[in-house]
Structure prediction request, 755 residues.
Amino acid sequence: MIKTTSIAIGSILTATTAIAATDISWWHGMGGRNGEVINEISQQFNDAQDQCNLTPISRGTYEEALSSGIAAFRSGEQPNILQVFDAGAATIISAEGATIAAEDLILDAGEEFDRENFIPGVRGFYADSDGKFIGMPFNSSAPIMYYNAAAFEEAGVQPPETWEEFEEIAPALKEAGYLPLTASQLTWMMVENFKSRNNLQFATNNNGYDAVDGTEIIVIDENQVMMFEKLKEWADEGLFGFYGAGWGDNLRPFEEGESAMWIGSSGSFGGLQQSMSDDFSAVFLPYWDSIESAGTQSFIGGAALFAMAGHPDEENTCTAQFFTFLTSPEVQVYYHKNTGYVPITEAAYEMARDAGYYEEQPVAEVGIKQLQLEGGEWTSGYRLGFYPQIRTVMEREFNRIFSGEVEVREAFETIEAEGNQLLERFGRTASN
Amino acid sequence: MSNTHSSAQAPRRPFARLMRGLARAGVSSPQKRVQFNRPLTPWLFLAPQLAVVVIFFYWPSVEAVLSSFYIEDPFGFGATFVGTENYTDALTNSRYQATAVFTAFFCVVVTALSLGIGLLLAVKADKVIRGAGPYKTVLISVYAIAPPVAGMIGMMIFDQHIGPMTDLFAFFGHDLRVGVNYWDTAIAVTTISVWKQIPYNFIFFLSGLQTVPVSVCEAALIDARSGWRRFRDIVMPLLAPTAFFLLIINITYAMFDTFAIFDVVVKDKPANNPMTLVYKVYLDGFKGNDIGGSSAQSVILMVVVAALTVVQFRFIERRVHYG
Prediction:
């Protein structure tokens, strides 16, 4: 309203006054250094042209950003752009009419768009079953294993590629006075990406991509149970530290040089550069050599940007322009370098590589290389409704596993039962 | 001293006065009502307050009741009527039951401890003559801390890696793991919640104690040598109105206002940690986007609070002597 009025006033005054720029808003769930970089990119976009004025607003965490976006949509106050994290993808993609498919938005605005420009691992997760981009991949990450270089030198061992190798070297690290391993967000690392990295099915209906109705998760499989039995065993032997579901609680021992390895996000790189005093590097998330199909790529994590419906055309055009701006190699490389999130286009990756960035910072290439590993039948992630709640169930059961309240198999039985109840419930929400 | 004693009598009987006032309003004679020959004026004065109550309480409550009968798409594109399924789902869910049991337990412990410690400190502070001011200021100042900040401070004290409390427990041979172990987190949340509420109770008990007439205390001194007996027979009954008021406030605090403390302690990831019913409403509704289920839970909570209020006023307030 204010904007249209100001445009009207602007056009009345014409001649001397420049026409007011179209304001668009962007709600996101990023904090710390990553939040600053969002402000920087928005500023760059505003400086690069004068028709659109983008305002980024932090809405707390990923979950808070999604729920405030939903609440805003219900009261007609939605932002133009909403950042939605991987676990919330099904929620927003299933709500047809809440968003405009990123691909349609960009093409309607007369901009160019080619799916083939994107890195293969990025293409599927936020797209519909025909491969059309609904969300615009933005901060894409992969779970990778960081390691403290000094710890490995002291113990005289090499960072492991497989979990079998981890079992061999971990005692040496322990002997050298380190806690060998900690990991944040086991749901993402040890379930979702465990499935992807070892090429194992995660849910029926093609991991949930083909249909909402009748989709069930599959977590009581021998390999999944074995992974957690091993983790529990390692925790009991002092080879693995578990500090609850909080991300930072599990990161801190690594930052303080107590733990030798930490499984985190490739997007943690920017923050670690500031918080780590020791030299660190990273390798791929390990897989099990004993699992026949293993060693495949991890799927894309992080979040995507969704263009919310219900805005006038000139605002949508601005949103489309911003999406195009965001995928330009220059912006991608800038974002990649400052956060550690992987570049989402081939062109950006080549640009960073040709400029010699990865010789300078080999860690920054680990995530993108992992996403480019050979794919398999089950390596494109999942599309599951009420997934944030399913993750909450998993987090609860994992805590119970590590505090010795429940056996691993029993915990996964609970997760599967409660997860399937939630999926069934999601299937009954009306828009599907 | 005796000056302050006699002057602070008035605020000791808020409920009785309120009730009497209401009763009087109800039976006021027609002649008196004629004094207001503009019937709209009082409503005009009431309007802002009524608007606040309607907009922020009745309207959301009605909405909650309505959506509790539906399973709804988060974005509001449609809803399926499911009758009372959301209620039966919640009430038969073992996690919900466990949360309810924890909430009740938590309310009792927090209320008992913060009332008990607040009273003890007030009785002791009431006796201090030299340096009374600084003592009281130190005890009261905690009240100025907002719950999320109290949670943050508490979390630093209980942190798994750097918390002094973790070190203290380790000294006694217990591996305190707040955030991992259910009861360890319960200890942390309870401690922080009690700590935050003590000063509030302290202020009210202290002012209550100062309204106990010195003459009564002096008379009692002749009858009983035992300090505890004088406290039990004279001071306690005279403190009852204050204590009843605080009981209600403390239960409300434990059930609802501790939300921010839970939120900070469990850091956005509840996992297996204990939580109160109101926190579960928030989790399912705002993080899980399950609006129907969350609404049903909040209606259940409303019913519980209504029942609790009835019990408090019917059965407990009867025993309170307003002097």
